[in-house]
Amino acid sequence: MQAEEKQLQFADVNNDVIRSLVVTGRNYYITLGVAIFVTLSCFFFPWFYQLFYGIGAAGNNHPAVWGTYLASFIFWIGLSHSGTLLSCVLHITNSEWRKAMYRSAEAMTLFSLMVAATMVMVHVGRPWFIHWAAPYPNQMELWPNFRSPLLFDVMAIATYVTGSSIFIYMGSIPDFAAVRDRTTGWRHHLYVLLSLGWRGTDTEWHRLGWAYTFLAVLIIPLAVSVHSIVSWDFAMSLVPGLHQTIFAPYFVVGAIYSGTAGIVTVMFVLRKYMNFEQYITKLHFDNLGKLLIVLSLIWSYINVLELFTGWYSGTSIEYEQLKYKLFGFYAPLYWEMILFCAAVPLLMISRRIRTSFVPMLLISIAVNIGMYTERFLIVATTQSRQYLPDAWGIYIPSLVEVSIIVGSLALFTTLFLIFVKIVPSVSIYEVKETMDTPRKEGSSIWQETMETPKSENGDPAW
Amino acid sequence: MSFMDRFVSGWRKYRKPGYYEDFDYAWTMTIDLDRCTGCGACVTACQAENNIPIAGESELDRGREMQWMRIERYWEGEYPNTKLKFIPLLCQQCDAAPCETVCPVSATYHNQDGLNTQIYNRCIGTRSCAVYCPYEVRYFNYYDHHWDAPLDQQLNPDVTVREKGVMEKCTFCVQRIRQAKDHAKDDGRRRIKDGEVQPACVQTCPAEALVFGDRKDPDSLVSKSMSDPRAYHVLEELNTLPSVVYLKRVDADAG
């Protein structure tokens, strides 16, 4: 808190961020231990049981062959959406406030995608043959089915993982170099490898800037297409309630919405437990809050539109689906979703709420609970009411599924906890770009840390 | 022939290979609902012929029954004036099957007989075909099923036993069709004669409500049966072009 009294210096940034990597408290180890334990016991153990036993361990049945695994898959893909996408958009529009938060947001993207890919493995009946869905040359000349939206999905997600991991890695190279110069031992060797011999010359900065912008432009359409394609898995079916053209924008908006809420949650935690109070400020929460409220309004609009389309179609099947969704077995969940995703976020109209941390945390968690419910409802309500009433049925998730949902959260947390100790979770060099160029007077830290303007961590402003 | 014409015809051929327009056979089944008594013999025959596992009571409660052919029942009216309507439902072997487009590994595809086939070995169990199927006739193996002795002795050796995590469905008894083709070839014939092959359900139906044959042969029994004015497809509006034709029940009470 002394930061508000003292002007933040360039050296402080290095010190703070590197401290977050090197100095590890007991709380971190306890959290990591708990996260790993929960991952093993709630995710991997039930999954192995299911592999051994069959998908019957989940609650799926005859009309509802898809279950929470697929809902979780969409949820995690959705959560991945804001990180890299938001970072790219804000990079191109030159938003200064992006710079303190984008690294952790991009990490969120990467790890959500990893968890989503794992959810696919959990979902399919024979995951040991999952590589058949990839187009690789083989002796039998058997190729996947290129007409299948699921195959588009495999392609889109693989591209997105590749793109966003290159993007986060490339943006971190100068930071790895900065850490390299300040660490010893095994860490030093690790960062020597990771920084790819970065020296901070003008040419290097120029190339990095160019490539970074290039990738940012490339990733924006990619991110939009990924969730559109995920939506086609559903929209290309004939199932009433799924077979709608609004699905692609619906999914994309929903994804960015839940992803932005996810960023708010992650930023709160980082700010609180990694001592980044000076970097992640009220400004970030304010701006993200504004974004959230816009997204919430678009999301609500699309929901109304979806209902309208069902009603306007005038067919008994769509009517039945609509009635079932609003007043049927899953109706309480539907109204919970409306409450959490359409009503509660309206609180953020007030600037007081946007700039206070705990309410923002609560709202962001509520939004993500609502968004998970939305994904669950997309899968559950539609499958329960299809064309032939004889095949109607109700799907209730089993204990194994619930455990895997909890476990996947822990898996994500584990990955993120490991990440914050390896990669600087706040961008050192980009935060410095937002600061005033330091002057000699009034900064005693310079002499202490031996940091000179020509230091190897490099900064374009110099 | 200009370059453009050659290109266009080549493209068309690439987009629509011949076998997609012109199958060797077009296996079709007609189900006469006026003759059907709902006895369920076809269901049992199918179960025996195709090694369909018996899911059991508890699984039935959870909605995981395995029946490639099922009799759907619909009650109409209030007691005591209730009326039961029923319709046997099996895989419709659609010519424009939604399930075929969605399978990422092409485990289900259209073969040269116009059949919608399921390759158990290739299936990875995404279950999307079952969601895409509007008739809900695809069944998933939630477990490795087993047959208690001595039931394991009556498994059909011509049909595989499916592993857990695999989708399965009615094949129009493709093993019988294959056998009939082999016999025809041995006899030096090019085509199977009408009535030479029958799926288990058709063979069993005591009321002869089910007729099976090749609709490309205009003299076949099934072609004649199809031309009945009562003929209709289930969920015809979805344009899946099913190969199962139902003959409507004529209701005497309806006047």
Condensed summary:
The complex is a heterodimer of chains A (about 450) and B (about 260). With about 450 residues, chain A is mainly alpha-helical. Chain A has helices spanning about 10-20, 25-55, 70-90, 100-125, 150-180, 185-195, 200-235, 245-275, 280-315, 315-325, 330-345, 350-355, 355-385, 400-420, 430-435, 445-450.
Can you describe this structure?
- Chain A is 68% helix and 0% strand.
- By secondary structure, chain A is an all-alpha fold.
- Chain A has a single domain (14-134, 144-444), classed as Formate dehydrogenase/DMSO reductase fold, CATH 1.20.1630.10.
- Residues 1-5 and 446-452 of chain A have low confidence and may be disordered.
- In chain B, the strands form four sheets. Chain B has a four-stranded mixed β-sheet with strand order 8-1-10-9. Chain B has a two-stranded antiparallel ribbon with strand order 2-3. A two-stranded antiparallel ribbon of chain B has the order 4-5.
- Chain A binds chain B through residues 53-56, 59-66, 123-127, 129-130, 132-133, 142-145, 147-151, 154, 233, 236-239, 383, 386-391, 393, and chain B through 59, 62-65, 70, 72-74, 89, 98, 101-106, 109, 122-128, 130-132, 134-136, 139-144, 163-167, 235, 238, 240.
How many runs of DSSP E, i.e. beta strands of chain B?
10
The geometry of chain A reads as globular
Q: What structural class do helix, strand and pairing data of chain B support?
A: alpha+beta
Numbering strands along the chain, what is their spatial order in the largest sheet of chain B?
8-1-10-9
* Rounded average pLDDT of chain A: 86
Shape of chain B: globular
In percent, how much strand structure appears in the residues of chain A?
under 5%
Please give the count of helices of chain A. Answer: 16
State the major sheet of chain A: none
Number of strands of chain A: 0
Range of strand content of chain B: 15-25%
Could you give a short account of the major beta sheet of chain B? 4 strands, mixed
Encode the helix/strand succession of chain A as letters.
HHHHHHHHHHHHHHHH
CATH superfamily placement of chain A: Formate dehydrogenase/DMSO reductase domain
List low-pLDDT spans of chain B. none
The percent of residues in helical segments of chain A reads: 55-70%
Structural class of chain A: mainly alpha
CATH architecture of chain A: Up-down Bundle
Seen as an oligomer or otherwise, the chain set is: heterodimer
Radius of gyration of chain A from CA coordinates: 24 Å
